[in-house]
Amino acid sequence: MNLNSISKRLLLFIGASFIVTFLLVLYLADKQFTAIVDASQQAVYAEKLESVIKILDRKYERLLATHMVAAYQEDFKDSALKELEELYYTSQSQNIYPIILDKKGSVLMHPFGEHEEKKLSNAEFIKAIIAQKEGSLQYTCIDGIEKWSLFKQFLPWDWVVAYSVPSEIKYKDILQFRRSLVLILSVCLLLVLFLLCFIVSRFTKPIVTLTDVASQMSQGSLDVPIDIDRKDEVGVLARSFAMMRISIWQQIADLGEANRKLQLEIGERKSVESALRESEERFKGLVANIPGATYRCLNDRQRTMQFISKTIEEISGYPPAYFIDGNSGSYASLVHPDDLASVQSEISEALNIHEDFALDYRIIDADGKERWVTDRGRGVFNKDGNILNIDGVVFDVTQRKNNEKQLARLAQAIEQGAEEIIISDSNGLIEYVNPAFERISGYSRSEAFGKNLLFMEKQVHDEVFCRKIWKTVKGGRVWRGRLNNVIKGGNRIVVETTLSPVFDSLGKNMGFVSIKRDVTEQIKVEERMRQTQKMEAIGTLAGGIAHDFNNILHGIIGYSELAIKDLLQVPVPLRRVERILDAATRAKDLVSQILTFSRQKDIKKKSVQVTLIFKEALKLLRPSIPSSIKIKQNLVSDLSVMADPTQIHQIFMNLCTNALYAMKETGGTLEVNLTEVDLAEDFTNHYPDIKPGRFLQLSVKDTGCGISQEVKERIFEPFFTSKPEGEGTGLGLSTVHGIVASLGGAITVETEPGVGSTFTVFMPVFEGKEDSSRTEFADLPKGHERILVVDDEAFLVEMLSDMLTDLGYSVDFTCSSEEGLDIFLDNPAAIDLVLTDMTMSHLNGFELAQRILAQRPEMPIILITGYSMQINEEKARAAGIRKFLMKPVLKEELAQCVRSVLDSSHAT
């Protein structure tokens, strides 16, 4: 029988119903019987419990009859317990027995003796019985046996009497009844199930037969016999099956014909589908191999995708499904916000006129990075001209855009570069020049195209030299060096050139590139720097010579001044000594010029109105100027500079004297101009020692013989002269150069042989007030203080001592700096002033001053030097030295200095 058949389901339903009924009956019968038996058992044990209570009542009544309850109560209790034990514990089973408890829960009577009574006294069920006083209790005894107890209180003695019985004995009849009931009902159940199976099989067999017929018919067996003779409902159903079978035979015949036709059609369709699959595979391969993402989208602002190839994930980072039907995001949201409006506008314009579109724009990929794409597409229209959708392809052109950007930046750098950049082909013919080339060379691009790369160099350098350059670069090497170029108009410039070959990826020469930098002005600056370095070196040498020379002059001048005082009444020797003093003074001025040139002599500057000095100097020059030389002057500025007036006079006289010398043979014109100029950085950059600002410009121009290039490079060197022997010392222009440099100015020269020369001096303008103070001369100041003189030249120590003694001072002197320190340390308070030379062995003057000031910080000290690069007046003052003098020192200068230092010391 089929498990899913109706008969099976019916059988299962009836069986389940019967089982439920059986279980319900069993439950109710058990419950009813249990109640009856339980009530019967409870009545039996209640009667037994009452019999115990009655015995106790009799005992208590007897106790009361004695009228001595208090005296005999315990005896009666023991008697009652003993009687109960004899009555119940000897004749009855030990499984069913009474027990007696007092109100504290102590067991007074138990069949198992005193030991068991102590164990039970603290049992939980004992506590429960004492708490309830009366009733029944189901519990587990201490020996593990399930028991039931019925108990009641005996009030006279406040006892509780309990009657216990094992649960197994109490419920024995109930359990026996349950086993019998289950057995009887199980037999009945089996009989009912068997009967049900028989009845169901009789009723369901025809239905099962029809079911089998239907199953075989469904499998194609239409000739299965069907019993159509039954008169009941099954017979009606069988006849319906028979009619259905006839109908199925007809339909099968029709279906066979239809199937034949369908097979033919299916064959044709399979051929078409095969062709379509092959076409689809070719299309998929084509789409997959396209480097861009092909798409079809709707014509809406969001560009909703109907199809987009997998390549879009490589471009944008989003999978194709992200864009399809706008489920997750739209393609329009991918477009950079700054480009979206223009992209939509251009696509709309192209579609409106039925044209293809191609545009570049930016997108933001899944990582938030900006990428460039090229979008090429066209609209798909129906026969009425209405757009259906848009087909296209998107290419990632980020790398191309970056390359274009780099190329554009490179092109801008080349176009805007300050250096000339020239590119030629492999034959050396120019193909490109940048704007810097046009600006520097003067040639336009059209003029340069097609010319040889070295066309400007060949106008200066010989062919052999140019061939060597070409041999270097054609050999694959780079040539670097400085070249002369003739620019448009004929002028020459010097260019620092790098000429390099250019190769393609295969190593083939594509051409050459030349980078030129105009260094003409740089070379001039380098020349000026070399000139400055030469002069600084010579100045250092001159300063060194000046030191010793100043020491000698110091002695000559000092002793001459002392001798003059002694020879005031002897005319002839006096006159001769005066000549010696004059010669020494001129030598002093010469050394001053040397030190000025070397920038080692401190000059006392003040505001000077140079126009007055220049006009006064011209008045002095006019009488000595030949008539063949004319003077033109244009001295219009009344501004001042900070300088020594004598130095300004030296500048003017030296320049004018040189100009007159250049025109002494031919005559000419001396033109002197003084104007105001503002010098900008483009000028001062060539002269590192001056700063931009307002300057006085003095120009001295002559029309003489001019100066050659070789002489021009050396005219500011000390002791260099182009004049014949005996006509010049070579210190004139070098002194001018030193003075101008010390003023913070500059001097330039423009000259051409046979035409003349122009010297131009730039001096910074003084913006402060004019210095109108004048020096007043008086008698030499004297004193009586004690002075310590220290110098390693014995004759100078003697000379200084004589000068100071002549002025009234008390003098201690020594030729040793260490001895001078000892003299001071012997009695520091006795010395009022220390006069020390700077350059000495062991301790120099500065170190000696530091030792003395460490012992006596307020000690006045004067430091004298002929020349020193180690110290100057500012450094000396910062160290606590009061005065700083340069040798040679005149007696008047010494007297003024000593007195001022001592007076200031006394004042403090």
How would the blueprint of this fold be written?
Layout lengths: L5 H60 L3 H20 L8 E5 L5 E3 L4 H8 L2 H9 L2 E6 L5 E9 L4 E8 H4 L1 H47 L14 H57 L3 E5 L7 E4 L2 H6 L20 H16 L4 E8 L5 E12 L5 E10 L1 H19 L3 E5 L5 E4 L1 H7 L3 H4 L14 H12 L4 E8 L5 E12 L5 E10 L1 H47 L4 H27 L8 E4 H12 L7 E7 L4 E4 L1 H18 L5 E12 L1 H4 L8 E10 L6 H4 L19 H11 L3 E7 L3 E9 L21 E5 L3 H13 L3 E5 L2 H10 L6 E5 L7 H11 L5 E5 L7 H6 L4 E4 L4 H17 L1
Model description:
- The chain has about 900 residues and is of the alpha+beta class.
- It has 25 helices and 27 strands.
- A hairpin with a 5-residue loop joins strand 8 and strand 9.
- Helix 6 (about 170-220) packs across helix 7.
- The longest helix is centred in the first third of the chain and has 60 residues, at about 5-65.
- It is elongated and about 185 Å long.
- The N and C termini lie far apart (about 145 Å).
- The relative contact order is 0.04.
